[in-house]
Structure formats: structure tokens, C-alpha cells
Amino acid sequence: MRMRDPMTQSFNTTDYSIYLPAVNTGYANFLTKQIPANRPFPAGLAIEDFCIWNKSSKLFYHPYLLHSIGNFSAMSTVNNSITQAATGDFTLVGDSGGYQIGSGALKGVAGFRKGMSAKAAIAKWQAAHDVRKWIVSWLDTYTDYAMTIDMPLWALDPKQGKNSPFHKCTAQEMLDMTIENLKFIDLYGRKRTKWLNVIQGTDQQTTIDWWNGVKDFKCSGYAIGAGGEGGLAQVIRTTRMMHEQGYLGDGHDWIHALGVSTPVWAIIFTKIQNCLRKTNPKLTISYDSSSPFQTAGKFEAPNFTVPFTNKVSSWSIKTGKSKDIQRFSYIGSKDPFPYNSPLGQVMQLGHINVREKPFGKKQFDTISNMLLTNHNIWVYLDAFERANDAVFKDPQRSNVPQKYIDALDVIDEVFVTANWPALLTKHKDVLDAVSPSQY
Q1: How far apart are CA 222 and CA 255, in angstroms?
Q2: Residue 12 has pLDDT above 80, yes or no
Q3: How confident is the model at residue 13 (pLDDT cuts 50, 70, 90)?
Q4: How far apart, in Å, are the Cα atoms of 434 and each of 167, 230, 255, 438?
Q5: Residues 177, 150: contact at Cβ < 8 Å?
Q6: With 384 labelled, which of 167, 292, 341, 420 sits at a CA distance of 20 to 30 A?
Q7: Residue 413 near residue 423 (C-beta atoms within 8 A)
Q8: pLDDT at 2
Q9: E strands within 192-300?
């Protein structure tokens, strides 16, 4: 693993597709706190250095992030490091809480329940005028780009959506509610944020139906699913369709892929972005996940990578074991943190193992989890940058698996071929060989 000077690294690049860490409330709130005077902490660092979108951070700078209104209780006033910053040297993409809405779990909204009739669920959502207004107002106040309020089709899935209050709705009813939400945004939005029209679809036909229903609403770009049924071929089909119909020209400058973050997706999105920039040089593709936060917070485990080679097994972000960094014997330890990152180069195991036995089995406190989160975010960003370098800076592509190269070549061909649907069908096996295990 190459080492970097932790005081100089920036991920502020426009050459590649952009990863948006989905910053959760725990990390956003952490950045507003003070470190207790008697708590061990890496020397020379302050709390503001962990704000990754702060250009003055001594660790690293990444001026792109995602924050979801689904983290909060409806109608509440949100006060954390992100809303306090409001604007600055970063781009904030807002998620409208589609997952929480679809699952009926949006805090502060009562009355949604498993097993509701479609009629009752639709009526309940139509009556949630104040909730929708709160969502639109928050996104329009704080974000640079924001997802429109979509009613997710996964709620209809026999397994994934069985507990959703919208489970008994039809695809057309979900689309109709989404169209009403788009009209609502047109009416109540204050036009500060640039809206990304969310394109749903569980297969080719439902995607086309959804697209035809929402495509003519005013927006600055689009958000698409990437990890669902259809995989890579569906992503290519959707973006190529938009391109062919003239919806990705000047003024439609951002595409966001929802909830995926692997090295192979990073290079795929950069390839699609490069193809689209031939007609719209301003266009950017981003993608997001909460994985670094989940791994550090829920599993208290470190992420790491190995050098990329032409072997598929090397092209992944790996997870270490919590027990390797969390033990009572590490309390007060000056042993170095055993994984590389800007923080990892200056952190000791005694900085994260701080709780004595009376507290139970865990030696980590909340600050420990936040330190580990910062390390994990850097690992993800570094992995995606190195993956893109391996493809787009190394002419030999000697550290890229051949099946990835084959898929990238298909993408190039799709965006210059008139009969691209036939080409997608022809190369389905090439694309499927890349996407199924890469969600």
C-alpha cells in the first residue's frame, strides 16, 4: 500500500465520477462537539480536521457529500455540522428520504403500517402536505442538488417490500404519487437547489414507463438506481435512453447513482461520464453509500484494500476484524493503528480503546467510532481514485481485470452506435459478468 503525506491529500477532482459519503447524523453531530480534556486523542489534530469537506483539514479534503433528510424526524429543526456550514467549499447532495417514506419509517409521521390497503396508504400520503413541504423546504435551504421525492417501486417487491405500507399499491399508483410530488416541488420549491429527478424501474419496461411519466418535469439532472435488478446493463440502457432523447444536454448536468460503492462501479461511472461529456462537458456522475459509516459504527471494524492487480479478487474494499483493533490490553497503548490512512498514520490503538471493564465488553466509545469512520471514508475514496487511475491513467491497464476492460469497451461502443439496444443484447453476458456481485 502506498503511503501519502496526510497533510496534503485532496480528493477534489472533476476528472472521475464522484463518490459521495452518505454522512449520517452520528458523524455530523460529532463534528459539533468538543473532545473531553482527559480523553486520549491523536496529537496535533482537532475536531475540525475530521470534517472531510473542510479545505483546511489536516487529514484530507473531499468536497462532496450526501446527507439524507430521512435521518431526521419530520417537522424538526436540524442543527448539525452540515446545516451549520450551509454553504462553502463543498457540494452537498440531499436525499429526500425515499427509503424511509417507502418503508413507512420516516420519524414523526404516524399512521403508516404494514398491510395497509393501497387506497389507505395513498390517502395517508396525500394528506401529508406539511411533511412534504418540510422535506422540500429543508432540501431547498441546505443542499446544492437534491433528489426529488420518489415513491420507490421496491415497496411492491414480494420480499423486499413486504413490510411497506405501500406494498399493495400498483406500479402506476406509485408513479402517480411521484408525479404529484414533482408538481408539489414545482409549486413550493424556492429554486435554490438543483433537483435530480429520480428514475425508478425494476426492469426495462417499468423503467421506460416511469421515464415517460416524469421526464418532462423541470430538473437539473437525474438520479438512478444501480444496484437492483438488471445491474450494469440497466444502468447503461437508462443513461443511453436519456442521451438519445436529448435529456442530458446543457442544463442537465448531474446524474446520481443511488447506493452503490465498489471500485468497479467507480470506473464504470467514469466511463459513462466520459462518453456523455462528449456532448455535455459539464456533466458529472456521482454515487453514494453509507458503508464506511456502517462498518465503523455497527461492526466497529476497519476497512482496507490491497494493491489492485488484474485479478478480480483484488478489486474490493475489504473489512478487517474488530477484535484486531479493540481489546482491553490496548487501553493506553502507544502501538500504531495497523491500517493505512492519513489518520491511521498518526493514530495509536490507545486513542480508540478508552473504556475500562466496568463498561462491558466494548472498549470503544462514540469518539472511537467516529475516528474509525474517518479512516474508513478515506479507504473508500483512495480505492476509487486508484481504480480510476488504473484504467484512465495507465495506458497498459496492467492492473485491471480483463472482464472489466471488456465491459468498458462495450460502454464506449454503446454510446456511438445507432442500434444500441441490439448491442446491449449482444453483449449481455459481458455486462452480466461484471455487475451481479458488485452491488
Answers
A1: 5
A2: no
A3: confident
A4: 31, 12, 21, 7
A5: no
A6: 420
A7: yes
A8: 31
A9: 194-199, 221-225, 254-258, 284-289
pLDDT (0 to 100) of residue 439: 35
Helix boundaries (H) for 143-257:
171-188, 204-214, 231-244
For 65, phi and psi rounded to 5 degrees?
A: -155, 165
Q: Are 205 and 212 in contact (CB under 8 A)?
A: no
Q: What angle do CA 219, 225, 226 make, to 5 degrees?
A: 130
Task: Give the three cell numbers for residue 77.
Answer: 429543526
Distance between CA atoms of residues 32 and 124, nearest Å: 36
Q: Each residue of 31-63: pLDDT tens digit?
A: 999 999 999 999 999 999 999 998 899 999 999
* Unique residue bearing C-alpha cell 479478487: 313
Of 412, 408, 409, 389, nearest in space to 399 by CA: 389
Distance CA(332)–CA(183), nearest Å, equals 58
What CA–CA distances, in Å, run from 325 to 3, 142, 334, 347, 369? 20, 37, 12, 12, 12
Residue with cell 489518520: 343
